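Chains adopt folds. We examine one example:
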Amino acid sequence: MANRTMSRDDTQASSSRSLEIGILVYNGHTSLDFIGPQLAFTAAGMKVHLIAESSDPVVSDTGVSILPTTTLRQCPARLDILFVAGGAVENVLLDRLLMDFLAERGATATYVTSVCTGALALAAAGLLDGYRAATHWATRDQLARFGVEVSRERVCIDRNRITGGGGTAGIDYGLALIAHVLGEDTAKLAQLAMEYDPQPPFAAGSPEGAGPDVVARFKDVFGGLDEALHNAVSEALYRSSMPTS
């Protein structure tokens, strides 16, 4: 595969230019997945591209509109970092144009990354074969269907694959990636600029902390989303099993 881990020489060379980061956004994405990392990346002096199929606004899963900065065709041919946000990722899995884009850019990107269910899109594009990856706790079983070794870490680093858990893990992912690529001092500066000093009011950010009653309520509220994602994963697996012409 053309992917490679950034070497010491690569990192030194990149210090003289802004690293190119491509964030794929799509209708139904979760804005929280990439807003935190995007803020950290810009604080670290990285150049961020918000990529979509067209220049039209894309609408998040909570109704927030995001204006892309570039399109699939206009995006730089080679990205230092490819990133996929989570959300209604079935919209990506069922879109051949988006999947072809991920496979193509992922083959040349120095780092291939995601937060939340974005990992499922990477897996469907064949970009997590032989790698360990994290995703939202509620979609770990779906990620495993692609044959990926599923990590329960908040941020999982496996060579040049860096993946985060759900939603708020995006900030941790962004800072971990910056530290991995540009060093801890740069990451700490970005963290200070964001005043990222989390002190959550409840220890309910994981199934273990929330307890069985809250987990059951979660499944009651969001259970309908599971079926749509399950079906999209099934379709993606079917397509990958078909011989290429």
Summary: The first helix runs from residue 8 to 14.
